Amino acid sequence: MIPAEFEYYRPTDIAGVIAILEEHGDDARVIAGGHSLIPMMKLRMADVPHLIDLQAIDSLNGITISDGTIKIGAMVTQHELINSAEIEKAAPIMTEAARQIADPQVRYMGTVGGNVANGDPANDMPGLMQCLNAQLHLIGPDGERTVQARDFYEAAFMTDREDEEILTAVSFDAPKGGYAYEKQKRKIGDYATAAAAVQIIKEDGKVSQASIAMTNLSDTPVWSEAAADALVGTDCDEGAVKSAIAAMLDDIDPTEDNRGPVAFKRHAAGIVLGRAITRAWSRA
Ligand code: FAD
Q1: Per its record, what are the GO molecular function terms (predicted)?
Q2: φ, ψ dihedrals at 166, nearest 5°
Q3: Distance of CA 11 from the midpoint of ligand 1 (Å)
Q4: Residue 1's pLDDT band (boundaries 50, 70, 90)?
Q5: Sign of the four-CA dihedral 68, 146, 198, 126
């Protein structure tokens, strides 16, 4: 398939991007790695008369870790994440999750910013950002602002981002304790049928804090506070894990598609969350 004709821009700074977005409104869209947008354009499901490439904007690159805060530029690729020794040390759940996204070819191009901003419920980074309580940094004609990842997703492909804003970076406190990103998919390289991101802090043999987010089980990522609460104060015994799974199942709302009927997705959600909690607890 061949996309409809478009005008291509490659600005070298953010002001240049915003100027084009302001000029063309809905008719303009930024492109990062292109591995979500280009297929949509080829299938004619996205019509983008003005395409703004972010590849030449240096300020959107780079990973910094300072005073326990991790900041990842929007144009950092999944490949760079996987190969960052600093990220693996400070936030190993990022490495574990990024390794399970797509395949090496997609990961060479696909960016953290594109994955987070896209609003596709099947993307793995949004749930992970919610689990880590990340801040999303946006810039637009009215300046910069920060949104909590837990408040960003409104519906499938609909987020709190205005059309004339771009995501510049994500940031979060280096997570403490045990972690796991567990994903069930039909085959290598596929999106999740169900995935779970779990962080657990253990103190005196009990869970003192937990955070749980689920992917591709609703039209947005699902941060399940109730599931995490079910673990707090327990020693992550079988009963606690079952309670957490039951609480998570109350929060998700999967729909039937080519990854399976609702009952199968709910079953898969329970399995991945159980495995993720067990692994995170063993690492806590
Ligand atoms: P693009 O495709 O360039 O952009 C996606 C959208 O985000 C566009 O609407 C664009 O305008 C917008 N956007 C991009 N950057 C910004 C920004 N900085 N600010 C504002 N808006 C922005 N993803 C997963 O998470 N898990 C998977 O298992 C997975 N499997 C895949 C398998 C295949 C075969 C393919 C082709 C893709 C798969 N993906 C998967 C998606 C892949 O990870 C994408 O690359 C990623 O979701 C989007 O990143 P991108 O840089 O390619 O964004």
Answers
A1: FAD binding; oxidoreductase activity
A2: -125, 155
A3: 20
A4: confident
A5: negative
Strand partners, 181: 197
- Cα(283) to ligand 1 centroid in Å equals 30
How far is the CA of 108 from the CAs of 34, 46, 199, in angstroms? 11, 23, 27
Nearest CA to ligand 1 atom 14: 114
Tens of pLDDT, residue by residue over 173-219, are 999 999 999 999 999 889 999 999 999 999 999 999 999 999 999 99
Give distance in angstroms: CA of 184 to centre of ligand 1. 19
**Candidate CATH numbers 3.40.50.970, 1.10.443.10, 3.30.43.10, 3.60.15.10; the one for domain 7-53:** 3.30.43.10
Correct CATH for 182-283 of 3.20.20.210, 3.40.50.1470, 3.30.390.50, 3.90.226.10: 3.30.390.50
Nearest CA to ligand 1 atom 43: 110
ipTM of the complex: 0.99
